[in-house]
Amino acid sequence: MINVRDIEYFTVVAEHGHLGRAAESLGLSQSGLSMSLRRMEQHVQAKLFKRTPKGVELTTVGSLLLSRMRQLRLAHEDVIREVADLGQGLAGHLRIGASRGIAEDIVAPSCTALARVAPKATVKIAIGMLHELLPLLDKGEMEVIFSGISTRREDLYQEKLIDDNFVVYASVRHRLAHRKQVSLTDIAREQWVVPSTFILWREVIRTFEQNGTPPPKIAIETNSASIRRRVVSCSDFLGFGSRLFVQSSKRRFKLVELPVTQLSVSRPVGFTYRKNVYLSPIAVRFIEILRANAKQIVRDL
Fold first, then answer.
1. CATH number corresponding to 91-162+268-300
2. Contact (CB, 8 A) for 13 and 56
3. Is the pTM higher than 0.90?
């Protein structure tokens, strides 16, 4: 195998085109440098330099070797930079899961922020409920899930970022839109558009029952946030969803939160990952961004 130091010496001689000047720049004797070049030539079984009146010139084989050495040097520098970027969370492939509302309101802006600080990073996002995403986390197909946190598994680490409060919302043209206070009786008479398989809806029904109010009348159930927003915005139906969801949609869809103080439903939102499993630097960097964004969201609400 060629000695790495001999390769370095060969490169310096090629750059100077003169054995004496190369030896001086390396702090070597000219004879020592000549021995190094002979070792190289013995290894490749070909002459690397030819003598000229002004010094030395590369042979065809020497020129090819120098070209390859430069390519290897650049590749080596690229590897060092890439490894450093990976270690600092500035590059890599991030695989995450997110619930629908969280994906739009927290994860999406966090991805934008990540792209600014780590332009070499790539992200793959799977959308679903926590119980749908956990099997993917268990199989190692994603590193982190951002959603409502409710599971109590000991093998998982969970951290709350915010309390996600749920509110009643309507079109700005709805008859209740400009009231300073809205009662359960007022909204019980309305028709509703709600998410499918919505666990927190049980708490809504329980609140109505405890107040002796007839349960809300569901007109449309759908997991499509876009459909819910559009239907409510152009009808007299009421919606029930995350305050984050309403805040981010109210201008575009002309929605308004109704002040129903008797109805208080919330869920903790945060991230979940497996304990005692390697978390990539890019995932750690993304979590830091999420924490910062969550604090800003809380201040803005």
1. 3.40.190.10
2. yes
3. no
Label residues 93-118 b or e (16+ Cβ within 10 Å = b).
ebbbbbbbbbbbbbbebbbebbeeeb
Domain extent listing, the chain: 4-79, 91-162+268-300, 165-265
Same CATH topology for 91-162+268-300 and 165-265: the answer is: yes
Please choose, from the candidates 97, 98, 99, 101, the residue with its C-alpha nearest in 3D space to the C-alpha of residue 225.
Answer: 101
Q: Which helix (H) or strand (E) holds 254?
A: none
Q: Which residue is associated with the tokens 């499918």?
A: 196
Mean pLDDT, contiguous 10-residue spans, the chain (301 residues): 79 88 88 88 88 90 85 69 63 86 81 90 90 89 89 88 91 94 91 84 90 91 89 95 84 93 89 86 91 78 58
CB 146, CB 224: distance < 8 Å: no
Q: Hey, what CATH class is 4-79 in?
A: mainly alpha
